């Protein structure tokens, strides 16, 4: 791939913003600081109410090359991405949270890796915590029951090394994906509104026969806290079961039943531990599946059309172990969540 400006942008970067006024400037300026590879940058604002639009307008005046899309309503993370996708000209699509800062030279290693590995559908940078010393995620560990855990959370940055690493899933805070694959799947699945969209995308890319990697030579820093609140639990659980019912065959679900039961017992136990709001959220997630049955049927038809790998081949890449440390951290929360 050429980085010549005559060839047009080879990377389209999409920053999805919702009430991120205190983050958006640092994020956008850090990604604009890298001029090579050639790239275009979109900010999609999801009807923010915190003054984000004023800050974005200032950025647009200072950086006329910025493309700004203002949604009249909050379309969620995937919906924000899909709003910008028809406007993108790049062969690669970079998707970023508003609350991160890219380190210098972060983009080129991701572009180069995808250019030299056609079997890879998407890549993560190394995502550190905001101080840059510890890992937020080196990709994602996806459990066979659809749970997603940050791979390497809390490890010291220097322990990661520099070699690209195969991962079971892409972590959604920052990643690069081939535009052609997004278009084949009709964009990111925006039916879930928020949360679990990275697990969904990773599973679908696996289903299409593509590998997923993390490239630690590329680094971004993320303002991240591992936390949970009832609305988040509701969305995570509804979207997890939506994924399982959309992408796994009935036979695979039966074979996974022991693992699914164990996961359900753990999550119901967690909900009971956290109190009535969490019990209600988990109950709502279960009941909502009937209401979205038509959307599930559409996703099953999409999966059937795109499928190149069997459930068995996909599950070979998933994890059988739970991330107990992350479970324990969430269970230790007693007051209101640290980050909503």
Summarize the structure.
By secondary structure, this protein is an alpha/beta fold. The chain is built from 13 helices and twelve strands.
Q: Can you walk me through this structure?
A:
- The protein is an alpha/beta fold.
- It has two domains: 5-222, Spore Coat Polysaccharide Biosynthesis Protein SpsA, Chain A; 230-331, no CATH class.
- Helix content is 41%, strand content 20%.
- It has helices at 24-32, 52-62, 76-84, 107-116, 179-184, 197-207, 230-247, 250-255, 257-274, 276-291, 293-306, 311-315, 324-331, and strands spanning 11-17, 39-46, 67-71, 92-97, 100-102, 120-129, 135-137, 140-142, 148-150, 165-166, 174-178, 211-222.
- Strands 1, 2, 3, 4, 5, 6, 7, 10, 11 and 12 form a ten-stranded mixed sheet that branches. Strands 8-9 form a two-stranded antiparallel sheet.
- A hairpin with a 5-residue loop joins strand 8 and strand 9 (148-150).
């Amino acid at each position: 791939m050429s980085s010549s400006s005559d060839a047009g942008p080879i990377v389209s970067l999409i920053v999805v913003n919702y009430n991120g006024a205190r983050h958006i400037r640092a994020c956008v300026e850090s990604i604009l600081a890298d001029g090579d590879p050639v790239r275009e940058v979109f900010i999609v604002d999801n009807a923010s109410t915190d003054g984000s639009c004023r800050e974005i307008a200032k950025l647009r005046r200072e950086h006329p090359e910025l493309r700004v899309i203002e949604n009249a309503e909050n379309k969620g993370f995937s919906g924000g991405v899909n709003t910008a996708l028809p406007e993108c000209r790049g062969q690669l699509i970079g998707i970023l949270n508003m609350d991160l800062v890219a380190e210098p030279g972060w983009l080129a290693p991701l572009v180069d890796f995808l250019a030299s590995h056609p079997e890879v559908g998407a890549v993560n940078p190394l995502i550190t915590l905001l101080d840059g010393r510890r890992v937020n995620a080196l990709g994602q560990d996806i459990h066979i029951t659809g749970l997603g855990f940050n791979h390497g959370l809390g490890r010291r940055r220097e322990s990661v090394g520099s070699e690209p690493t195969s991962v079971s899933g892409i972590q959604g805070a920052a990643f690069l994906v081939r535009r052609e694959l997004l278009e084949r799947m009709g964009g990111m699945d925006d039916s879930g509104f928020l949360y679990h969209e990275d697990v969904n995308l990773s599973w679908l890319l696996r289903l299409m026969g593509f590998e997923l990697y993390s490239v630690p030579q590329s680094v971004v820093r993320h303002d991240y806290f591992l936390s949970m609140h009832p609305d988040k639990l509701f969305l995570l659980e509804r979207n997890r079961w939506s994924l399982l019912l959309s992408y796994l065959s009935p036979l695979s679900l039966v074979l996974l039943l022991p693992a699914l039961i164990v996961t359900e017992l753990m999550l119901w136990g967690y909900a009971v531990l956290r109190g009535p709001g969490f019990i209600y959220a988990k109950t709502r997630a279960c009941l909502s599946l009937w209401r979205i049955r038509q959307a599930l049927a559409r996703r099953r038809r999409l999966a059937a059309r795109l499928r190149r790998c069997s459930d068995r081949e996909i599950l070979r890449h998933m994890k059988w172990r739970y991330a107990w440390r992350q479970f324990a951290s969430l269970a230790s929360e007693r007051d209101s969540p640290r980050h909503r």
